[in-house]
């Protein structure tokens, strides 16, 4: 392990660490544009200059590996002067259109100009003009004049997706990024180029002009769109409710996790949050008593549900859990089914069209918690429950989240089943064809509205946090289930998701020893997977 | 005049043929080199004080010795025949008039660095040199000189000055834009197609057979203490006899202009000289008593570069000349790294305005400041090559620029 | 000055090399440790064959190299010798760099513009000549000079240019 000195501080770093990362480890931020830890070294932006003892002039840190005995200084006068000059070079042909630029507030030209530039502009000649507001495919908008040609987006498409859509065309100060004419940037990960663009050149067509970034709040979360569970930040707009078309969730951004998604997020996950603020969100519990569904209170609902469940024999109750439910929800549900002695429990409902996976992030299993559902133990295949319902052997059917009509099951069979069951309870976030046929519709809090954990395909248990309050009277599933349990006379101490997790950890060996604290921000592998990994 | 070595065959109309080359002692050095250990060849070239004649002036033998000894895979030899430095035309003469000198130099260099495949990167516009040289390569194959453990691929560029920069050339050879590569790694460690690579200029390699034939001591003795041999000076601009002149590297700029090129034309009065291609800082009329070797020009605050001498007589407008030069660097900047990409265009605009009488009071100081701030901050030497003229033209002829700026 | 329109040869045949040319492409690719090394030579071939490097040609060549068309477009737009638009039957490229400039290249360019009735970068209406200015072609000893197609024409005067133009059909 090389030991070196950075700004007088001794630091030991793993072999192969460059000086930007070494400085980061020592607590110093070296400004840079083209360097990105997930991409090859380009060395183009020339901003990351540092002084290394015995070298004649400042050297780029990104392409210099830490070496034993190296003495590095990131803040000498000439380094600061060089940075100032490089900032001026970057801005010579930049349009300086911050007031109308959506990147404002998270633009590294702005940030570094304030930190390292602060020169008096002297470029008074006509700037080079390039294409502006050019859509690059469904998600990304290009302003070539704002581009500093750091080539991160080019390298992303070359090295990460290996699709090679973006190039830098022409040369000199007429160089510009773009697509081959007539093509789209439509790979499954296109939104990442917006994340890694350090300036306002590539902006998100979904997010741009919706809300200024300084009005956003953020919560650490996990993407619920497939079994990988990419780590994300949820950006929400509380402070300007009249912006963003009234929607509370403004955007999702990938959050680095070396073991799961690195820096990236697929477009399907990135743009998969719109349901949270859709008009079809359910916000009040509703029950049908022989008529149209009528809104009611949770207290009445819970009482009625408890009575209904108690009034049925255990073998007359069916529960179709969901791999979209959190570990906590599933464990609460397991407690309920155990108490009632229910045997018709399952969670696997095959999707109408099997999804595919790729060699980057996306998993064919588009559910976030299949692994958790298996480990917690809420049955398996739900088809026998459907068959029992069709055969008239089910009096109460509680379906969580699934739209059974959107499954691979035959529509006629689903309809037959739902129509034969005297009481269908449906829990979920948004109305669908299944909920329409239910007698009780229970609004679930969406994942961004609550706490919880998912267990990804690797067996990694990962936390998601509350970014916004539940819509209306929507509640986390664990809360509803817990209240039903209490109404059935069970002793339920859990008042928070974390409590349910504690019970889960002390009951199911795979989760033994885990707490929200040990899971932390980057997750923890369940015991079985850990054993498998170390074997 | 001293003995002609590199240009000895230039006057023969059949000089490009294998027969003519052989008749003047060609391929004897290769015969000799085949009896030498590779390390001994490199050692001989080191002792000869041969320095790269493409522009950077790096000691050739030392460059060869950087190829890792323990490397198991292929090593490539790449010849830089992307002649493009304004004011330089000597490699064209070798390609057209003495192509076998380059082939023989390649054979010997390839043996020294244990290389089985060489590429000759010829600028795209050099169609005739490309055809002539390709013909010579075919002859060498037919004669069994090539194809016996060493192959040569002749590659055409497509119009980009930056491909004369050795790593830009490698990128281009690899079928990409001619973007120079970030160093380290240097080409000797990881060059063309990811393998250790030696990039040598045409003229540099053409010297090698003579070194092997006549010995390092002889070659070193032709030049100065730190650089051996003769080299070919391209002289153009306002001189009476523009052309390629071979002379020992100890020749002075004055001798080249007045003895070889017949003196200053037009007004007959010397104003300034660009001594080493357009990237070399300009010298004034009273700075021409310098030896035309790497260190002689360096000590004079300029550089020998590719030894392209462009002479300005009194009637030449230096601001007008700088406008041409600044346009060239803006046009040829590859666009990869920021200081060069952004400021070559800006400086071109400013110089153009000044030359057109639309300069502003602060322009000259801005150019000087911007250029000196950008110098040394880029991936390759291209920008420093632009800074040379920007700063030297303005500093040495400031009054002429100021006279054009409206008060 | 009359502005000439770009002469366009109607493209009737699909963009494709002959079997012999495809064999040549494979041969060129085999010369390099990575076949991509042959991209510049094959683009030269494509330009000679199809007249200029259109987007369709770029896509075709990209297919021959299993490259993304964007990467071929990068290369085509980087180098000066690939024409992205139809060019004249002859290309006249006048050097206007330092030595040629000192030798009066500017006057020669004006002369050519006037004789051809086009501006630099344009093609005569009859599709005969495309006029360009180029940076140093490294024949400064014979300045002013220009390149006409593959040939260097040296030590130019307006009269010599007129004679050269007469020879271009």
Describe what is shown at a glance.
The complex is a heterotrimer of chains A (about 525), B (about 400) and C (about 170). Chain A is an alpha/beta fold.
Give the tally of β-strands of chain C: 4
Biggest sheet strand line-up of chain C: 2-1-3-4
What is the spatial order of strands in the main beta sheet of chain B? Answer: 6-5-9-7-8
At the fourth level of CATH, the homologous superfamily of the largest domain in chain C is Glutaredoxin
Radius of gyration of chain B: 21 Å
Please provide a written account of the structure.
The complex is a heterotrimer of chains A (535), B (407) and C (169). Chain A is 27% helix and 18% strand. In chain A, helix 8 packs across helix 14 (497-507). Chain A contains 16 helices and 24 strands. Chain A is an alpha/beta fold and 535 residues long. Chain A has helices at 19-26, 77-91, 108-117, 152-160, 192-196, 267-270, 298-310, 327-340, 370-376, 383-390, 411-420, 433-437, 477-487, 497-507, 516-519, 527-534; strands at 3-6, 9-12, 49-52, 59-60, 71-73, 134-136, 140-142, 166-169, 176-179, 202-204, 216-222, 231-237, 249-254, 286-287, 294-295, 317-320, 344-348, 380-381, 396-400, 423-428, 440-443, 452-455, 460-464, 524-525. Chain A folds into three domains: 3-91, Ubiquitin-like (UB roll) (Roll), CATH 3.10.20; 98-106 and 123-277, Alpha-Beta Plaits; 286-534, Rossmann fold. Chain A is elongated. In chain A, the strands form six sheets. In chain A, strands 15-14-21-20-19-16-17-18 form an eight-stranded mixed β-sheet, sandwiched between helices. Chain A has a five-stranded mixed β-sheet with strand order 2-1-5-3-4, sandwiched between helices. In chain A, strands 6-7-10 form a three-stranded antiparallel β-sheet. Chain B is an alpha/beta fold and 407 residues long. Chain B has helices at residues 18-23, 28-33, 38-47, 60-65, 90-97, 99-112, 127-142, 166-173, 202-214, 216-222, 253-260, 294-299, 318-332, 338-355, 363-374, 382-396, 398-404, and strands spanning 76-81, 117-122, 151-156, 197-201, 230-237, 243-248, 270-274, 283-284, 308-313. In chain B, the strands form two sheets. Chain B has a five-stranded mixed β-sheet, with helices on one face. Chain B has a four-stranded parallel β-sheet with strand order 3-2-1-4, with helices on both faces. In chain B, a hairpin with an 8-residue loop joins strand 7 and strand 8. In chain B, helix 13 runs antiparallel to helix 16 and helix 16 packs across helix 17. The N and C termini of chain B lie far apart (51 Å). In chain C, a hairpin with a 2-residue loop joins strand 3 (146-148) and strand 4 (151-153). By secondary structure, chain C is α+β, with helices and mostly antiparallel strands. Chain C folds into two domains: 19-78, Arc Repressor Mutant, subunit A, CATH 1.10.10; 90-166, Glutaredoxin, CATH 3.40.30.10. Chain C is built from seven helices and four strands. Residues 1-8 of chain C have low confidence and may be disordered. In chain C, 42% of the residues lie in helices and 11% in strands. Chain C is elongated, with a radius of gyration of 18 Å. The chains are: A alpha/beta (535), B alpha/beta (407), C alpha+beta (169). Chains in contact: A-B, A-C, B-C.
């Amino acid at each position: 392990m090389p030991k070196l000195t950075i700004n007088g501080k001794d630091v030991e770093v793993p072999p192969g660490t460059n000086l930007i990362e070494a400085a980061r480890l020592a607590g110093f931020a070296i400004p840079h544009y083209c360097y990105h830890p997930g991409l090859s070294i380009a060395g183009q932006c020339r901003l990351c200059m540092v002084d290394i003892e015995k070298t004649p002039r400042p050297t780029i840190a990104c392409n210099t590996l830490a070496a034993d005995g190296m003495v590095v200084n990131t803040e000498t006068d000439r380094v600061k002067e060089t940075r100032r000059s490089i900032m001026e070079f970057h801005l010579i042909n930049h349009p300086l259109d911050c007031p109308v630029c959506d990147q404002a507030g998270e633009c590294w030209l702005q940030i570094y100009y304030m930190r390292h530039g602060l020169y008096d502009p002297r470029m008074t000649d006509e700037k080079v003009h390039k294409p502006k507001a050019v859509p690059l495919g469904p998600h990304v908008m290009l302003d070539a004049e704002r581009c500093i040609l750091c080539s991160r987006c080019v390298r992303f498409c070359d090295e990460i997706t290996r699709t090679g859509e973006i190039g830098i065309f022409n040369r000199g100060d007429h160089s510009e990024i773009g697509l081959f004419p007539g093509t789209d940037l439509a790979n499954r990960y296109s939104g990442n180029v917006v994340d890694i663009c350090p300036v306002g050149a590539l902006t998100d067509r979904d997010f741009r002009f919706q809300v200024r970034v300084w009005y956003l709040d953020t919560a650490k979360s996990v993407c619920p769109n497939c079994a990988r569970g990419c780590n994300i930040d949820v950006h929400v707009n509380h402070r300007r409710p009249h912006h963003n078309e009234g929607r509370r969730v403004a955007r999702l951004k990938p959050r680095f996790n070396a073991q799961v998604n690195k820096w990236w997020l697929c477009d399907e996950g990135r743009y998969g949050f719109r349901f949270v603020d859709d008009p079809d969100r359910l916000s009040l519990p509703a029950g049908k008593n022989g008529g149209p569904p009528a809104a009611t209170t949770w207290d009445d609902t819970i009482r009625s549900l408890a009575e209904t469940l108690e009034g049925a024999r255990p073998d007359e109750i069916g529960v179709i859990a969901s791999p979209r439910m959190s570990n906590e929800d599933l464990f609460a549900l397991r407690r309920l089914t155990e108490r009632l002695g229910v045997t018709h429990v399952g969670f696997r409902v095959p999707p109408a069209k099997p999804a595919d996976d790729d060699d980057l992030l996306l998993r064919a299993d588009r559910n976030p918690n299949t692994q958790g559902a298996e480990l917690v133990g809420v049955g398996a295949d739900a088809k026998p429950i459907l068959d029992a319902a069709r055969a008239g052997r089910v009096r109460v059917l509680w379906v969580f989240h699934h739209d059974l009509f959107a499954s691979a099951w035959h529509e006629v069979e689903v309809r037959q089943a739902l129509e034969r069951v005297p009481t269908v309870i449906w829990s979920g976030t948004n109305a669908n064809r299944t909920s329409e046929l239910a007698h009780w519709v229970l609004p679930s809090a969406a994942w961004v509205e609550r706490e919880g954990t998912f267990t990804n395909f690797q067996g990694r248990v990962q936390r998601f946090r509350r970014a916004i309050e539940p819509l209306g009277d929507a509640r986390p599933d664990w809360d509803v289930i817990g209240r039903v349990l209490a109404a059935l006379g069970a002793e339920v101490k859990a008042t928070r998701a974390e409590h349910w997790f504690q019970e889960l950890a002390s009951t199911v060996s795979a989760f033994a020893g885990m707490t929200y604290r040990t899971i932390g921000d980057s997750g923890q592998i369940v015991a079985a997977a850990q054993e498998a990994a170390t074997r | 005049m001293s003995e002609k070595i590199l240009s000895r065959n230039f006057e023969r109309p059949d000089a490009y043929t294998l027969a003519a080359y052989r008749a003047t002692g060609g391929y004897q050095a290769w015969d000799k080199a085949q009896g030498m250990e590779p390390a001994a060849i490199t050692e001989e070239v080191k002792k000869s004080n041969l320095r790269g004649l493409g522009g950077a002036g790096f000691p050739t033998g030392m460059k060869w010795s950087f190829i890792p000894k323990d490397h198991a895979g292929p090593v490539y030899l790449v010849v830089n025949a992307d002649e493009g430095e304004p004011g330089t035309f000597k490699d064209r003469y070798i390609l057209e008039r003495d192509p076998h000198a380059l082939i023989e130099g390649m054979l010997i260099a390839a043996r020294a660095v244990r290389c089985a495949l060489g590429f000759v990167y010829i600028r795209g516009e050099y169609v005739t040199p490309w055809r002539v040289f390709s013909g010579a390569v075919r002859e060498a194959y037919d004669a069994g000189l090539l194809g016996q453990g060493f192959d040569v691929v002749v590659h055409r560029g497509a119009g980009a000055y930056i491909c004369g920069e050795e790593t830009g050339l490698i990128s281009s050879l690899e079928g990409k834009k001619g973007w120079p590569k970030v160093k380290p790694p240097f080409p000797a460690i990881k060059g063309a197609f990811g393998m250790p690579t030696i990039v040598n200029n045409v003229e540099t390699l053409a010297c090698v057979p003579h070194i092997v034939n006549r010995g390092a001591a002889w070659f070193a003795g032709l030049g100065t203490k730190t650089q051996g041999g003769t080299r070919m000076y391209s002289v153009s601009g306002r001189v009476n006899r523009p052309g390629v002149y071979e002379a020992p590297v100890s020749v002075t700029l004055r001798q080249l202009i007045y003895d070889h090129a017949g003196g200053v034309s037009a007004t007959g009065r010397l104003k300034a000289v660009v001594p080493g291609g357009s990237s070399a800082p300009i010298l004034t009329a009273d700075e021409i008593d310098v030896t035309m070797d790497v260190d002689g020009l360096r000590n004079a605050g300029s550089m020998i570069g590719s030894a392209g001498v462009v002479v300005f007589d009194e009637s030449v407008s230096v601001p007008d000349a700088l406008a041409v030069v600044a346009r060239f660097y803006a046009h040829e900047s590859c666009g990869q790294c920021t200081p060069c990409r952004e400021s070559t265009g800006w400086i071109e605009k400013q110089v153009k305005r000044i030359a057109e009488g639309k300069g502003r009071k602060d322009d000259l100081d801005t150019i000087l400041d911007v250029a000196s701030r950008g110098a040394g901050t880029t991936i390759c030497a291209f920008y420093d090559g632009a800074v040379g003229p920007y700063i030297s033209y303005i500093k040495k002829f400031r009054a002429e620029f100021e006279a054009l700026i409206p008060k | 000055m009359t502005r000439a329109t770009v002469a366009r040869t109607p493209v009737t045949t699909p963009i494709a090399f002959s079997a012999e040319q495809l064999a040549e492409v494979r041969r060129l690719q085999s010369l390099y440790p990575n076949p991509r090394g042959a991209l510049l030579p094959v683009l030269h071939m494509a330009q000679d064959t199809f007249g200029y490097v259109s987007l369709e040609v770029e896509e075709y060549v990209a297919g021959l190299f299993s490259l993304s068309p964007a990467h071929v477009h990068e290369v085509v737009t980087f180098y000066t010798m690939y024409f992205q638009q139809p060019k004249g039957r002859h290309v006249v490229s006048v050097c206007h760099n330092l030595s040629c400039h000192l030798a009066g290249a500017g006057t020669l360019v004006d002369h050519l513009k006037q004789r051809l009735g086009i501006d630099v970068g344009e093609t005569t209406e009859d599709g005969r000549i495309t006029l360009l200015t180029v940076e140093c072609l490294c024949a400064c000893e014979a300045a002013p000079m220009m390149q006409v197609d593959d040939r260097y024409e040296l030590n130019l005067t307006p009269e010599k240019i007129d004679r050269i133009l007469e020879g271009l059909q």
